Amino acid sequence: MDPAELDRMLKGLPMPTDPNLILGYSSRDDAAVYRLPSGECIVQTVDYFTPVVDDPYDYGAIAAANSLSDVYAMNARPLFALNICCFPRKLPSEIWGNVLRGGAEKAAEAGISIVGGHTVDDPEPKYGLVVTGIVDPAKMWTNGGAQAGDALILTKPIGTGLITTALKNEVVTASEAGEAIGAMKELNRSAQNVLADFEVHSCTDITGNGLIGHAAEMVEASGVGM
Q: According to the 3-state scheme, what is the secondary structure of the chain?
């Protein structure tokens, strides 16, 4: 959804006032962050979308990796996940079983379990995860800490949206899109582990709004230019 349209929808809603809520939706960050009595923080995000590839297993794996990326972008450790399944009954259940298998195996690769979820009958399929994680607030990354002079580092290639659109319109084949599909299935955990050894001022997960859209959110949240 267009960010400006989303802002209009949210306008007038009561803002959260819980003092333990570290991050809500006001900063458009990748996840909500809530302080626990122990001092650690729970990180929670939800992300799902319509199929971007034809293969059900790959679709499930891509959707799961995408959902987990929001947690990694906060420098958090995922704990468990829930499925969000919007599947049309008219198609064979084996298809959706493969979607779920792709998601479950990607979650297992991340070291977590999918412990439940919710399903609805929907003519347009959608799949994704609610992911819950945990983070030390002193080590947490947000989209609002960028400083003048910071280098912008991408952990994955951009342009996958163009390739998946071309795939849908049969401009390219699945084989030709193989490199992009592989990148979308890759977890951002390795990038998180590498970056954890450096002084990271700000981080975000580039998805639906693209590089420019998410960069604009970082600029606004950080009070810097680009």
A: CCHHHHHHHHCCCCCCCCCCEEECCCCCCCCEEEECCCCCEEEEEEEEECCCCCCHHHHHHHHHHHHHHHHHCCCCEEEEEEEEEEECCCCCHHHHHHHHHHHHHHHHHCCCEEEEEEEEECCCCEEEEEEEEEECHHHCCCCCCCCCCCCCCCCCCCCHHHHHHHHHCCCCCCCCCHHHHHHHHCCCHHHHHHHCCCCCCCCCCCCCCHHHHHHHHHHHHHCCCC
**Domains in the chain, ordered, with CATH?**
3-222 (3.30.1330.10)
Cβ(106)–Cβ(185) below 8 Å: yes
**Residue 190, both tokens:** 């390795």
Q: pLDDT tens-digit profile of 163-198?
A: 988 988 889 888 889 999 999 999 999 999 999 889
Residues contacting residue 26 through CB under 8 Å, at least 6 positions apart? 15
Q: Please state the length of the chain.
A: 226
pLDDT digits (tens, 9 = 90+) for 94-134: 999 999 999 999 999 999 999 999 999 999 999 999 999 99
